[in-house]
Amino acid sequence: MGKKSTSEIKIEGETSLFSERIRRAQGASRSGNWRAFKEIFQEDKKDLLKDLDLFKNTAINVATRSDSPQLLKELLEMLPEQERWVAFTKKSCEGNTLLHEIVLICKVVEMADVVLDFEKKMPWPLPEAAAEEEEEEKGRPLLERKNSKGETPLFRAAKYENLKMVIHLAKAAAAQPQSDTKIHLRSDTRTILHASINVQSFDGNLDERYEIEGYDSFELFRPPSTDLETSHQHDDKPPTSGLSRINYDAWKYLARA
Fold it and tell me: Would you tell me which of 22, 24, 204, 219 could form a disulfide with 18, CB atoms 3.0–4.6 Å apart?
């Protein structure tokens, strides 16, 4: 009789952390078979809000890895409104919401739009869905919610160099009624500018940075004109040294935040 493979050996009394359906969904996500992933949750839509991994990410969170706005929209539409709000606000073990996951993983900015568009259509108040939320976050817009490190989704996008998402969410944040834009400028330990410098954010994206020229309503990044290291003005081209790629006006503004 042949030996059993390691995957076939089962310790007596061992129980799986995940159901058979969740394990199938895990396999579909690992292989990038998002059609099968969706079909699995059509069998029981309640599983969409269950933990799909050890980091307490739901199936909705994991679906962001597809970078497909259509898939995300279809999965969210499978949930009733109350449970949809739970999908938006439920946090992983690191305190990340659905938007926090989107800005880390996704390059397609419309992924964030799917969530923000649903948020606009949500009826208020949502007493049942909001019952498990932290008291200080109840009623707070999704863009202004922070993870365990005190980072909003916009802050996290800057931290991980997702420039297109920074521009997109900055505009969305500035357009929100009674928006507290300064909430995005600082985490528990540092400013958004320090976070972007620490990972050399945007160093390879100077051309893209000019897309936000004149975007004064939020004042995160304007086209740089002053070299912070030499205080020398460059009228013909932006500075190219590491720290000086951040605009001097933005530096002064964020340093006061």
Answer: 22
Specify the residue for token string 């070299």: 227
pTM summary value:
0.74
Angle at which helix 34-42 crosses helix 20-31, to 10 degrees, equals: 160
Determine how many CB atoms are found less than 10 A away from the CB of residue 13. Answer: 5
> Helix, strand, or coil here: 116?
helix
- Looking at residue 60, its pLDDT comes to 97
d(CA 14, CA 210): 57
In contact, 65 and 29? CB cutoff 8 Å: yes
N-terminal to C-terminal alpha carbon distance within the chain: 70
Domains in the chain (CATH in brackets) are 17-134 (1.25.40.20), 152-257 (no CATH)
The residue with tokens 């199936």 is 59
The counts of H helices and E strands in the chain are: 12, 0
Label residues 125-156 b or e (16+ Cβ within 10 Å = b).
Answer: ebeebbeebeeebeeebbbbbbbebebbbbbb
Matching residue, tokens 């949930």: 79
- Beta carbons within 10 angstroms of residue 216's beta carbon: 10
Q: State both tokens at 232.
A: 């020398």
| Residue among 111, 170, 97, 101 at smallest CA distance from 140 | 97
Please name the helix (run of DSSP H) or strand (run of DSSP E) that holds residue 97, with its range, or none: none
Classify the C-alpha dihedral 165-170-176-179 as positive or negative. Answer: positive
